[in-house]
Amino acid sequence: MRRPGDGQSFAAGVRQELVRVPMGKPCCMLSEISALTQTSGHLGLRGGGRMSVSYRLEDAGVARRLFQLLKKRLGVNPTLHFTQTPQLGGRRVCVLTLSGEDAQTLLGALHMTETDEEGQTHLKRTAPRHPMTRQCCRRAFLRGAFLGAGTVTNPEKGYHFEWKAEDEHLCRQLLKLLEKCDLPAHSYLRKGSQVVYLKGAQQIADALALMGAGQSVLEMENIRIRKQLRAAAVRAANCDEHNGERMLDAGQKQAEAIRQIMLKEGLYTLPKGLRELGRLRLENPDLSLKELGEMLDPPVGKSGVNHRMRRLMEIAAKMEEKPETAE
């Protein structure tokens, strides 16, 4: 886990963790390749209808992962070279280039070409159906999109997570995928490109966990806990010391149990009522059950909140009893 002051940004640490995630099943690899192609790929047609595909990536780790994905899943062998781009302050950029035959293989696998009635080949922006229908592929596509065009703010400064979408098709696809993952996202236009973004600490933590960045989730949670405890200390100073400490202790235990559910299964697997309460408790470990109930929509009484909280604790306890299995 990263430590403050190690010279690495939070977003760079997330990318570093994601490039080490196992590549998974063939359908997942194709979904991740599709996302990287749509975010970092440069597609074109040369003379004679020959296709060309190249990728420009600032992160060498991402370039290495894409190289491995292309070779393992599609059997293609891109060439790699480095270039310096004045627009990026002279930073070195990794460029992966596919030969005409390999480009044909890639675009055919991704269903990104079509032939008209005259036999002419045309490029089209699309993607395999896997990411929309399979949970494992949704994870892979979002991971690839983040590696190609995503960033996340340092949680010490705020909570903002985004993907840059160069075209409307990718923007719509990301919004649909996030909706299926119970992550309501928004979009806006910035400098001619669509930006899909998440706001809120819990939504961002869910997205990181979904993509496979578990250590980054823990780091973010630690930062958030420190911030919450500082705020809770001020609040606790204005209430009865004994009751305040007991309430904080119970809230922290509940938050920790819910955090384990999030990391192991994901809060999106819970019923809506439990999911909403779980997110509120994670964001407010210092509040009483009555205060949490007042924040729900519609509000719920203390007894109802207590009943839901007991169910969450039971779910967490059952997860602790289950033996962990390797993926």
Short structural description:
By secondary structure, the protein is an alpha+beta fold. It has helices at 10-18, 26-40, 60-74, 100-109, 130-133, 135-149, 168-180, 201-211, 214-236, 241-264, 272-283, 289-295, 302-321, and strands at residues 41-45, 51-57, 79-85, 91-98, 113-115, 121-123, 150-152, 160-165, 186-190, 193-199. Among the domains are: 10-127, Homing endonucleases (Endonuclease I-creI); 240-327, no CATH class.
Structural account:
- This protein is of the alpha+beta class.
- Among the domains are: 10-127, Homing endonucleases (Endonuclease I-creI); 240-327, no CATH class.
- 54% of the residues lie in helices and 17% in strands.
- It contains 13 helices and 10 strands.
- The protein has helices spanning 10-18, 26-40, 60-74, 100-109, 130-133, 135-149, 168-180, 201-211, 214-236, 241-264, 272-283, 289-295, 302-321, and strands spanning 41-45, 51-57, 79-85, 91-98, 113-115, 121-123, 150-152, 160-165, 186-190, 193-199.
- The strands form 3 sheets. A 4-stranded antiparallel sheet has the order 1-2-4-3. The protein has a 4-stranded antiparallel sheet with strand order 7-8-10-9. Strands 5-6 form a two-stranded antiparallel sheet.
- A hairpin with a 2-residue loop joins strand 9 (186-190) and strand 10 (193-199).
- Helix 8 runs antiparallel to helix 9 and helix 10 packs across helix 11.
- The protein is elongated and about 75 Å long.
- The two termini are 22 Å apart.
- The relative contact order is 0.10.
- Mean pLDDT is 84; it is low at 1-7.
